[in-house]
Amino acid sequence: MTELRDIAVDEARDEIVRVGTSLFDRGYVHASAGNISARIGDGHLITPTDAALGFLERDRLALVDAQGEQRAGDRASKTLTLHRRIYAADPTARFIIHTHSTHLVALTLAGVWSQDDVLPPITPYFVMKVGHVPLIPYHRPGDPRVADLVTARIADRLASHTPIRAVLLDRLGPVVWGPNAAAALAVLEELEETARLWLLTDRRPGPLTTDAIDELRTTFGAAW
Q1: 132-160 pLDDT, tens per residue?
Q2: Three-state secondary structure call for residue 57
Q3: In terms of Cα–Cα distance, which of 106, 125, 112 is closest to 186?
Q4: C-beta of residue 77 within 8 angstroms of C-beta of residue 35
Q5: Which of 120, 138, 139, 179 has the lowest CB atom count within 10 Å?
Q6: Could you give the residue ranges of the DSSP H alpha helices within the chain?
Q7: pLDDT digits (tens, 9 = 90+) for 25-72
Q8: Which of 28, 87, 125, 138 does the annotation list as catalytic?
């Protein structure tokens, strides 16, 4: 079992470094903004505090046990509490990405569509790949109270059978999650692209019609 866990940790280290490099190369992150984590059994691997995601070193990633105690690597990101609480609240979450993506931060400054849905469902892929994204009121980076707000939103949406895959932190950017790195990246990319489209069109486009969204539900199982 120890050998299998070591393999899982090694694979997660490589995946986090790969994702961080990809996000940096494509302009989703800058400087030391943002963080990435992966769930490994009952523990977690997370980027260090103030780490530049485009230049991560695999052996310096922070390994944290089930009790939140750090076992290896540099000091864990100050958002560790938020990541751990999301994993606990959503058993399907195995990979989390937080960025300060330009258009999504700009959206919080210009004004979101609503507190429960930061963007209207203007494209079918936004409905299918992203879904509902609530706004989380501003708190300083790393404030543990944010975890309470995010997990409450997760619980509310699970109860209504419309689970969320992301939240948007006011003035700080998105936090997205999924069962693996590819799924979390897909949510982030579609979310940022939709924000860019809505801002480029001066926030004029309205949502898809009810009939159009119902068709996405019945045809593709969209959780909206």
Answers
A1: 999 999 999 999 999 999 999 999 999 99
A2: coil
A3: 125
A4: yes
A5: 138
A6: 2-25, 80-89, 102-110, 124-129, 145-159, 181-200, 210-220
A7: 999 999 999 999 999 998 999 999 999 999 999 999 999 999 999 999
A8: 125
